[in-house]
Amino acid sequence: MKALKDKYFLKTMLTIAIPVAIQNLISSSLNMVDTLMITNLGSASIAGVGLANQVFFLYILLTFGINSGGAIFIAQYWGKEDIKNVNKSIGFAIMTSFILGLIFTLVALILPKQVLSIFTDDLDVINAGVSYLRIVSLSYIMTAISFSYSIALRTTGKPNVPLVVSIISLSTNTILNYILIFGKLGIPPLGLKGAAIATVIARTLEFGLLLYAVYKGNSFLNAKPSELFGWEKEFIKKYVKITYPVILTEGFWALGQVMYTIAYANLGKTAMASIQLTNTIQNMFFVVVKGLASACSIMVGAKIGSEEFDKAYDYAISFIALSSISGIILGLTLSLSSDLILKLFRNLEPDVYNTAKSILIFMGLTFVIRVYNNISIVGVLRSGGNTKVAMKIDLSSVWLIGVPLAFIGSMIFEMPVEYLFLLITTEELVKAILGFPIIKSKKWIQNIT
Asked: Per residue, what are the HEC states of 360-414?
């Protein structure tokens, strides 16, 4: 771990990781504020929005898979200073993200009730989710394209641009939530519909600001359509070969999380509300990890692109060490402060409060395992181009371990939701055991450009 003593490594890491971490902190903080506001509307509203967000969760993870795969190419081409192919990689990510966004928008608009009925038969929860989902789906396509440009800017050394845009967009979302949900400034209270409208307006603003930053600035990302979308057959073949395992991984991993939600929903409204609430809180603690994972992927990928393979490996091990230490500290903080955090949510029903507290304690105690897996798979294995191995580790753990255990615990033993969460975490432990020897072998290091 020589890199930990390297000033260039530390400076570059902080330059990338801090803006990404702050951006995610703002996003998670405002999402928690959203949840705080929705708790005033009751557990059915919390659960309904939670289920509606499962659709968005699946969509955004597929979008992340598309753009994460593209980022592998962008980072390595950036390391070679090949701007032409950087722009082609961005263009391919934008095009595929747009198609995906269109599909999800149409499904959410036409079949929202049928989709949410997959999770639960509680009509109060379904109706709450439908009223939110139909409106918020109008932001999906803009979110996808914004996501593509944000990742491209981060990967090419401009993380401050999406950070500033997020601050403006997400602050707008919170202010509008307050006005529209509760009916301020002479506007009638709109409840969940107000939260959805606020999200659409904020996403539209985010989309416009990012396009302005890219096409009015002096960035080389200011590319013509022919530079973004003029792909040769060989480029498409190579791009698809590397990125399809990433997209499949995110898609089937997200479906696995959907299966977990169905298992939790089987335990009732309180269980669904508690999981929705605790996941929002956990995301607050995960911001540091996301910053490190982003920095790891970019820096390791760039070193591989410039064929500095030993340094790429040293960077990877250094990131894993840093993230593991961070995971232990953050996890203990989450467990020990669970009661204090939940006191922020003043109108929680007692059952939801007590259940959420138990889940937060278990989340904190197992936090370091999830941190390690995020860095090792997203930050290390994918940046090295060994996307198929990452896919096998991820999907086998979820579908052969996590999903079966979720339904055994929920349907057969009807376990309390906090113990079901702990049982499902077994898949994270298996994932860590499978991934460690592969990282040590260095076989994941591949120059794909």
From this structure: HHHHHHCHHHHHHHHHHHHHHHCCCECHHHHHHHHHHHHHHHHHHHHHHHHHHCC
- Please state the three-class secondary structure of 24-77 as a single string: HHHHHHHHHHHHHHHHCCCHHHHHHHHHHHHHHHHHHHHHHHHHHHHHHHHHHH
Phi, psi of 317 (to 5 degrees): -65, -35
- What domain range includes position 427? 2-441
Residue 147 CA to residue 65 CA, distance in Å, equals 11
The band of 326, judged by pLDDT with boundaries at 50, 70 and 90, is very high
End-to-end alpha-carbon separation of the chain, Å?
26
Helix or strand or coil: residue 5? helix
Residue 447 lies in a domain: no
Domain assignment present for residue 216? The answer is yes
3 pLDDT above the threshold of 70: no
Give the orientation angle of helix 140-155 with respect to helix 287-305, to 10 degrees: 60
Domain for residue 155, yes or no?
A: yes
Express each pLDDT in 257-280 by its tens digit: 889 988 998 898 889 889 988 988
The per-residue pLDDT for 327 is 94
Give the chain's domain count: 1
**Residue 367 located in a structural domain:** yes
